[in-house]
Amino acid sequence: xxxxxxxxxxxSQLLQSSGCGCGISIVPVRCIGVSPRQVASDASFxxxxxxxxxHPRVLITGGLGQLxxxxxxxxxxxxxxxNVILSDIRKPADNVFYSGPFIYADILDYKNLxxxxxNNRITWLFHYSALLSAVGExxxxxxRAVNITGLHNVLDIAAEHNLRLFVPSTIxxxxxxxxxxxxxxxxxxxxxxxYGVSKVHAELMGEYYHYRYGLDFRCLRYxxxxxxxxxxxxxxxxxxxxxxxxxxKTGKFQCNLKPDTRLPMMYIDDCLKATLEVxxxxxxxLSMRTYNISAMSFTxxxxxxxxxxxxxxxxxxxxxxxxxxxxxxxxxxNFDDRNARRDWGWKHDYDLPELVTTMFSFLGSxxxxxxxx
Length: 373
Description:
The protein is an alpha/beta fold. Helices cover 41% and strands 13% of the residues. The protein has two domains: 27-226 and 266-292, Rossmann fold, CATH 3.40.50; 239-265 and 298-332 and 351-372. It has helices at 2-17, 68-79, 94-97, 110-119, 133-138, 140-160, 194-213, 239-249, 268-280, 300-307, 322-329, 338-343, 352-363, 367-372, and strands at 58-61, 84-88, 102-104, 124-127, 164-166, 169-170, 216-222, 224-226, 252-255, 263-267, 290-292, 296-298, 315-318. Strand 1, helix 2 (68-79) and strand 2 (84-88) form a beta-alpha-beta unit. Helix 4 (110-119) runs parallel beside helix 6 and helix 8 runs parallel beside helix 10 (300-307). It comes from Charadrius vociferus (Killdeer). Residues 58-293 form the NAD-dependent epimerase/dehydratase domain. Its EC number is 1.1.1.103.
């Protein structure tokens, strides 16, 4: 790559010769198929540690999704309000906008994302931008762009600027040939959705960048996540959130999966706790780059029975969506997360009864719940 090296030397000389930089605009050059990292072969690659900085400087992409706002709240309590920047391509609600730093960031705009990382001295990046399972199947080209091309941008920037990078994976990273009960960390995956394929791609690319460039890449395979703070977003496991909203608003719930469809699930507080714990874990404690995490596993019928303990008059019917059912039938029934529990001490707090009680404690001020109680 003699041309690229010549350009790099010219840019370096120009920057060193300019005392004030007035009138000079340097446009980053991105070489397709080559990592942007152009450094000495004996350089040491690592994320900024707590000994070098009191707190990490955090950027969350796709921050207005189900997990981003909650993660920002948790991290701001831990590291300070101004050290955690939430980003998305959508306009945030007032309560989100005024709760801490928010900026526009399009992960498909490499130059803009790079500028954000540099200008804000980012050291940790949580990459949550993605199209979920059912939504991705409805628009494969967009899912491919967001989930794969966007990931490549994030990986290159993280490697170039020595970030500690977290990319979530999912139960959707497994397929019908995977062992389902339980599903171990390492096994055949072969998913059959663009969402799942993109997540396997993310796991492998992150691991490759770790071994090839020293990128501090960390990844958790999330089960279905249940949260009171967000509306369902088009995922196959979203019925487990929708049932609470429908129980309160109408007293009637129609499930789009079969009543005996068993899937691993987790309350959002456990999910966010696991995410922070794996990011704070010492590098030497991690025996792998991608871990399963689990808390509980239940069926729609079991969830409905637990919900009806709080709302006895809830009527549950089933109208199976063939696309979502096919996806669910290819996913794990239970996660084996022994490695996470051994390596960095993962332990969940919420089982099904605690989950349902907690959801209604947030959503259940409605008169329907008062009447049921």
